[in-house]
Amino acid sequence: MSRRRGAEGRNALGLILIAVAALVLGGLGAAAFVLRPPPTDPETLCRTDAPLAAHTVILVDATDRLEPRHRRKLRAVLAQERGRLAQYDRLTIMRLNMRRPQEPTILFSKCLPRPPEQTNPLFENARMTQARWEEDFAGALDDALRSAASAGRARASPIIAGLRAVAADPDYDPSIPARRLVIVSDMLEHDPQGFSLYVPEANYAAWAAQAPSRAPDFTRVDLRIVPIDRPDHAAQQAAAMDHFWPAFFEAASVQTVSTDPAP
């Protein structure tokens, strides 16, 4: 009788151990499923199973040469905006294109991947993904700085055309809950064949009277202006910031506006 009870006890203990092992394995499997990264686009690294939650666009005006102090500011601004990103937020860096004003050059446009410490090594090489993102971001920064340093006196500064292109970008549409726009520029719009903020008494009313269409729609967009100082044109810059851009961005329905101090 005692042998039977001992055998039954061992069998019961074995069943308990099997059940515990099954629970442990099931728990590990569930944990692995929870930690499995969401599907992402291989080029942009943005999620394909959920809409984009936030998108920051940095528009760089390098149509005129940027001095060393300006380039230091540009580098700092890009680092600051990169630091604001949450996981899977998108960052796009554009450069004004004088030859094709309606098509700013896209230097970088990707979503920030999850940091390596929050990823599951069973499903992804997070360190490699993060390293690739940082390398591409650094390359875009170098491109922006290189073009900013090499530009000469420009024939045109198509700031408004660049803003229209940003507003029309399908990856930057109003369905995105959080949109941010950063403009690094001297803010001196200049079209040799049209409107120019270098002209005395140029203002929003004069632009609106001759513009072929209204200001672009930036509803619910938070705007940061990073002015590039031009000592030879300080009066025109002051007039533009007082009499043109506030009215322009109000017409564009910008949500908030902040302006950095000049370097």
Description:
This protein has seven helices and six strands, in the order H-E-H-E-E-H-H-E-H-E-H-H-E. The chain is an alpha/beta fold and 263 residues long. Strands 3-2-1-4-5-6 form a six-stranded mixed sheet, sandwiched between helices. Strand 4, helix 5 and strand 5 form a beta-alpha-beta unit. About 6% of the residues have low confidence.
Give the N-terminus to C-terminus distance in angstroms: 93 Å
Strands of the biggest beta sheet: in what spatial order?
Answer: 3-2-1-4-5-6
Q: Helices and strands, in N-to-C order?
A: HEHEEHHEHEHHE
- Content of β-strand: 5-15%
Unreliable runs: 19-33
Structural class: alpha/beta
Rg, Cα atoms, Å: 27 Å
Shape: globular
Helix content: 40-55%
Number of helices: 7
Main beta-sheet strand count, sense and barrel state: 6 strands, mixed
Number of strands: 6
Give the averaged pLDDT, no decimals. 83
Any key phrases for this structure?
263 residues; alpha/beta
